[in-house]
Amino acid sequence: MHHFSYQNGELCAEDVPVAEIAAQVGTPFYLYSAATLRRHFAAFDGAFAGQPHLTCFAVKSCSNLAILNLFAKMGGGADIVSGGELFRALKAGVPPQRIVYSGVGKTEEEMRFALESGILLFNVESEQELEKLRDAARALGKTAPVSLRVNPDVDPKTHAYISTGLAKNKFGIPIERAEAVYLAARDMDEIEIRGVSCHIGSQLTDVSPFVESLGKLKALIGRLRAQGIGISHLDLGGGLGIRYNQEEPPPPAAYAEAVLAEMAGLECTLILEPGRVIVGNAAILVTKVLFAKEGPVKKFLVVDAGMNDLARPSLYGAFHAVLPVRQHPETMKADVVGPICETGDFLARDQEVPAARPGELLAVMSAGAYGFSMSSNYNSRPRVAEVLVRGGGHRLIRARETFDDLIRGEAIPDNF
Ligand code: LLP
């Protein structure tokens, strides 16, 4: 459930007409609803009430400081995958003891930064990484709190690019190898083993792969404990899907119920790393129609947002509904395309969209997760503004970039 709805034929974000904001900030822009963000966080986090747990929001899905701060105030932590994300999470007020650090390629500098910050857990993805982390901790005279991210070889039944828990994926330590690596870790003075973690993929629309991998993790924890290796944290990663089109993902309550049933009797603090399910449907991308073009075989709406602003349709063939900002009686089958010089630049393809005219505003729905955070400056396009609505008010939470922002740090060398 989100808070974007029509009132008197006008699309509103909570109580604010989207067109009003567009008139103030220009287009394109991302528009987030605070009530939706809060509602989704509370629904997810609340579903695990009764179980010691920590909801670490996946920063990569939406990394604006205002949004990270909103979740931090609700007791949320952060799942980070880079030094930059750690910097953001700390700036946003996420306490370091609520931060977990995932990722297959952590650098020494990033490890040092995280060790110095005092984060809760490093999700270590290989033996080489474990050794490098030990060395980094030793050099700083610190101990590194660690979970091993295991690869349970479970099919998440999602898009190939965002499946991570199969044996053929680059992620994690193969579950059969895990025990040996835990034993090695136990002998490292600077490593403090705290947990087991996994993340099998994103946009999962079925709970069974989660339950299957949890079952494998549970068995591993049993074997580790039998060898005297204490495991206090179990990190199940993120991945719960949302509805973009016709998908019917389980609601957080059903997901939690299945997870908690499988976890029964396992004395562990549960860590969850949701991204999409919290922010996906909490934002729209507002764009203006520049031209309505009729080719010999297709109709196109050329809009002012492109694949650099929202990469998901081009990259994954992802579906995003396109709705009119002022309710429109007619629809048509068309492509909604951007100004980028590539045929792959589309926001919607062969989709039923408003029969809009130049100047009209469109809302690209479900754009909150991996929308702005994956945007780029391709074609030297300044990244768009981000706006947060709360009730009847709104605030700019990221200014539109300027042309000067585009060339910041660039230099033409003298006599070179
Ligand atoms: N934890 C880890 C270790 C992850 O790699 C991810 C996502 C998450 C948590 C959060 O997953 P979520 O709850 O959002 O599904 N750009 C793609 C999605 C990439 C997901 C990468 N990892 C997209 O736009 O669909």
CATH architecture of the largest domain: Alpha-Beta Barrel
Cα separation of the termini: 58 Å
Report the CATH topology name of the largest domain: TIM Barrel
Unique ligands: ligand LLP
CATH superfamily of the largest domain: Alanine racemase
> Mind telling me the C-alpha Rg?
23 Å
Strand content: 25-35%
Mean pLDDT: 96
Query: Count of helical segments?
Result: 12
Unreliable runs? none
Q: How many independent structural domains?
A: 2
Strand elements, count: 21
The 3D shape can be described as globular
Question: What's the CATH first level of the largest domain?
Answer: Alpha Beta
Largest sheet: 9 strands, mixed
- Please give the share of residues in helix: 25-40%
Helix/strand class: alpha/beta
